[in-house]
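Journal club prep, notes for RB
We'll compare a predicted complex against what the paper describes. Inputs for the AFP case:
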Amino acid sequence: MIDTNSPIETVVATIARTASEIHQGLVGRRVTTDDENPSGETQFKADLFADELLADRLSSVDGVAQYASEERAEIVDCGGGTLAVAADPVDGTSNLPSNNTMGTVFGIYDAPLPAPGTALVAAGYVLYGPITTMMVARDGTVTEYELAGGERTVVRDDVTIPDDPAVYGFGGRVPTWTDDFREFVRTIEMDEALGLELHYSGAMINDINQVLTHGGIFAYPALEDSPEGKLRLQFEGNPIGYIIETAGGRSSDGSTSLLEVEPTDLHDRVPLHVGSTELIDRLEGTLAADSG
Ligand code: AFP
């Protein structure tokens, strides 16, 4: 039974309410600024707007000691408590000009940041799709909500990733993938027994939600010119790895669970692979075999 008065549930409820404001605030903020985030990526007005809202709302929640995001270099000290909230306020802002789906990602750690994924006590994402939905993993289960009219309604509880994979989607460009990863992709694409369909949108949360709903695999792998890939461990890799593993799937940095990766810096990047267990096992087998 979820204790709705717990600090964790208060954080989840605060993010749900704030997400509705973020969604409305996308209007008029689909343009870039002259600023870059700590990863060197150009920020949209929507990134900054969403980040300020989340920092303001979460820093006043009892029990939250820290707030950090992909959009700001430093951790916000929120005062007492032991929880640290790490967020990607708007994931997929490059989809804004074309008005395609994007999301908000968050992880709730019971440890000071930067922290390994094993310190997570909850994680989730909001998906701004035809319907705004929220997926939350905590207490060993994943729950899906619809957000509408200020209300959060359970539409699926105990969400589990289907055993039979159906979709796949990989970030980066084929020429920039490593030979090992390219070989893995070729074998699963040609595997008629799998019959996977390519679903890739440029917004991780959209792609993850397809994998969680239909079964399959999503990855933003190590690239030849960027061995750590693109996605951030604290704000994307750990929360998504926690959600998919809680739903019965697997996550990997190429050799081990994302949740086991020890961070060295708040904005560390990590090669991210998540999805149905058989496909992650197969990926690790291919990478291990080719590494000799
Ligand atoms: P933006 O937030 O800059 O659009 O990046 C989105 C993202 O971090 C993640 O959501 C996508 O999976 C990935 O980048 C897409 O990266 P590419 O544009 O290189 O495919």
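Talking point for the session: The first helix runs from residue 7 to 25.
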